Amino acid sequence: MDLYNFEVETIRGEKKTLGEFKDHVLLIVNTASKCGFTPQYKELQALYDEFKDQKFVVLGFPSNQFMGQEPGDNQDIESFCEINYGVSFPMFAKIDVKGEHAHPLFTFLTQEAPGLLGSKAIKWNFTKFLVGPTGEVIGRYSPNTNPMEIKPDIQKLFT
């Protein structure tokens, strides 16, 4: 499956495909508003601000699958992200990122970039996937990886 064929729903309910982001470097993240890692929104936004003019974009996918840490609806999530962290990168509708009802995008990402010891499951909020400009999954980063630690890997994709 080609990454750019996946259909997603924006946080405002618009259907689109990831084809809109073809030729971009992507950092795809499953997010949550009430998690110990939620302050990572600040660093994700900083990366987006720094590199967006070089065809880089962060894509945030809220999920409530980890201890109910994303309980709000899409409007609540969007408001929280804008007010508390100034998020301007694309956010998408709340989805499942693991299990039987996982969104096909996350099934694809976990197959392309397994986690520790080959695990395909996403273990927690703020798991990050770096995707190169031709749609190849470059790497997977754990929730406790600060987004700024990914910066060198992002920069390599622009050269």
UniProtKB/TrEMBL annotation:
Protein's GO biological process: cellular response to oxidative stress
PROSITE patterns: GLUTATHIONE_PEROXID_1 (PS00460), GLUTATHIONE_PEROXID_2 (PS00763), GLUTATHIONE_PEROXID_3 (PS51355)
Keyword line: Oxidoreductase, Peroxidase
Active site: C35
Coiled coil stretches, renumbered: none
Top-level division of the source organism's lineage: Bacteria
GO molecular function terms noted in the UniProt entry: peroxidase activity
Family indicated by similarity: Belongs to the glutathione peroxidase family.
Alphabetized PANTHER family for the sequence: GLUTATHIONE PEROXIDASE
Protein name (Swiss-Prot/TrEMBL): Glutathione peroxidase
Lineage: Bacteria, Bacillati, Bacillota, Bacilli, Bacillales
